[in-house]
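Hi R.,

As promised on Friday, here is the backbone we talked about, encoded as structure tokens. Could you run it through your design pipeline when you get a chance and send me back a sequence?
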């Protein structure tokens, strides 16, 4: 069998496998709409979407790659990643994108995007670590993939993976996930995950409820910029629950080696 023919046939087999897996996931979302993606959903789905997602984010958004920004985010993730559950799976990347929105969102393929508006709204690196911990919960549970299969339909996701109208499909996915809300159950789970992850990483678990409070107060004059908070999951209730959970944690806090003021300042240069 010639190499081009072999590559073509392997591509067809991969597309067929992904299609079947996505159809199964779509059926699961249809009959069990409140459940998160189960651990037996093939991780190949996220792996296949990962490169497409990263390429499209860079096409659609200005990614901030100043050395201070990249070094700060890398240091935060360097503290959080080793504390993740061993079953967390694939590597997760974080990109800071240029937007006044006070928002962060998780995309399929292990990518978390943080808007510069959110970075400026948080006064400490520990609070950013708390927000990233929350988003890491969605990434580990693969909530974005489950949501896309349910909201956009499996055919749309298959089209992106199999190389159909990939760019157009990914732009639709991106627009959907910027404003996504997973609902109270998923947000409560992610909040608890964030508090526990901070404690496991040797960071102040109270930093997460503080971050929520700062996000709540970030845009009183321009509420349209405040996209991070889920209207179906009351923020004051979430802050109270996170404070309660943080109060039960026992951890030896170690400072993050991050020049947060310098990081924020680099975004204004």
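Update: got your reply. Pasting your designed sequence below so it's all in one thread:
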């Amino acid at each position: 069998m010639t190499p081009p023919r072999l590559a073509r046939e392997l591509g067809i087999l991969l597309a067929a496998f992904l299609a079947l897996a996505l159809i199964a996931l779509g059926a699961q979302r249809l009959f069990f709409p409140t459940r998160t993606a189960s651990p037996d959903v093939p991780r190949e789905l996220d792996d296949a979407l990962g490169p497409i997602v990263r390429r499209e984010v860079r096409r659609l958004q200005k990614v901030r790659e100043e050395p201070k920004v990249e070094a700060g985010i890398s240091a935060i993730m360097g503290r959080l990643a080793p504390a993740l559950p061993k079953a967390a799976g694939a590597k997760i990347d974080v990109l800071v994108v240029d937007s006044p929105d006070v928002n962060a969102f998780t995309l399929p393929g292990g990518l978390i995007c943080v808007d510069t508006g959110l970075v400026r709204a948080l006064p400490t690196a520990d609070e950013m670590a708390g927000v990233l911990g929350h988003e890491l919960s969605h990434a580990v549970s693969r909530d974005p993939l489950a949501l896309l299969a349910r909201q956009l339909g499996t055919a749309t996701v298959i089209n992106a993976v199999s190389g159909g109208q990939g760019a157009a499909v990914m732009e639709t996915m991106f627009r959907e996930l910027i404003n996504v809300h997973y609902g109270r159950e998923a947000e409560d789970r992610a909040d608890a995950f964030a508090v526990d992850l901070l404690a496991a990483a040797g960071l102040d678990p109270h930093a997460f409820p503080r971050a929520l409070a700062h996000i709540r107060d970030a845009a009183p004059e321009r509420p349209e910029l405040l996209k991070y908070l889920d209207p179906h999951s009351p923020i004051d209730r979430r802050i109270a629950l996170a404070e309660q959970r943080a109060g039960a944690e026992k951890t030896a806090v170690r400072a993050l080696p991050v020049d947060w003021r310098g990081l924020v300042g680099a975004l204004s240069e």
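One thing I noticed while checking it: DSSP finds twelve helices and three strands in the chain.

Thanks again,
M.
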